[in-house]
Amino acid sequence: MDILKIGEFEILPGEQRKIDLPVAKLYTDANVSLPIHIIRAKKPGPTIFVSAAVHGDELNGIEIIRRLINEKKFKIIKGTLIAVPMVNVYGVVNQSRYMPDRRDLNRCFPGSAKGSLAGRVAHIFLNEIVKHCDYGIDLHTGAIHRSNLPQIRADMSDAATKELAEVFGVPVVLNSNLVDGSLREAAVRNETKILLYEAGEALRFDEFSIRAGMKGILNVLQHLGMKRKTSASKKKVVPFIANGSQWVRANASGIVHNIVNLGDQITKGQVLAEIGSPYGEVIDAVKATRSGILIGKQNIPLVQEGEAMFHVAYFSEDDEEIAERIETIHDQLLPDNED
Ligand SMILES: [Zn+2]
């Protein structure tokens, strides 16, 4: 029998379970564990993990997983889905991106059983979850006070990963290098094909980002044959692959008047924001250095000189077409939205 063993838990084909995988206690003597949902079909097939809150303040993914496993009709027909809504459970408690030892968990992989607290959590997650998986989707958001347009980051030089990135169905894919110590790097070493989904802002739920993420996971499960295709899922979005991206920075300190929104088409030289003094006069205009699509922005209307304000992705395709497609997807996922 094909038994999946996670910690002390044994999960059989056809079982659906929630387990609590113990990690280091708090100094208050309270036990801490990673909540893990495992859904196994009777039929053998691929194993995929979906993880969220590797950065503890990035909450959209927690909601994406909650909605996914609570979907009434949710059922997989083959293989195994392992959903881990809070990898950095300590960070979630503290509403912080970081671990209590101030480390970034996403720079502590592969970690070790005798290492730092962050290293130990990384080690447990890698060995108890990722090691079993052929595929993985890691859900992130922008940093605190920064919003991201829903986007996939993946190694597009790998054919199987590229295929998954395209299937996910968000309009923008950023071909991105592996960061040392990241979960993505550790997964790739384990030969787990992995996508990183980035959408929305830390400490906030963003409905568009949540819906686009859920849809993307369902698209991937259907593509892998783990879920039955529905008639509504036939419409395919072919993403645009960004060749690169750059943050546009403020050249003056002051009060920000934003002119552009996420998903907007940007042309070189276009004014993205004006920076004014507290007394009303415009001090400086923040201009795009290249043409592209706005995929990230900072939300606090106050800047210091040198601060990153707008994240622009560059494409070889027509930017206008990309902006139109982003708008179409937005309308499909949020039909009642006024903005
Ligand atoms: Zn993150």
TrEMBL record:
The record's Pfam families line, in alphabetical order, gives: AstE_AspA_cat (PF24827)
Question: Any keyword Metal-binding?
Answer: yes
* UniProt keyword terms in alphabetical order: Hydrolase, Metal-binding, Zinc
Ranges for domain Succinylglutamate desuccinylase/Aspartoacylase catalytic come to 44-224
Q: Name what cofactor the protein needs.
A: Zn(2+)
* InterPro entries named in the record: AstE_AspA_cat, N-alpha-Ac-DABA-like, N-alpha-Ac-DABA_deacetylase
- Organism superkingdom: Bacteria
What protein is this chain from? Succinylglutamate desuccinylase
Q: Which organism is it from?
A: Colwellia echini
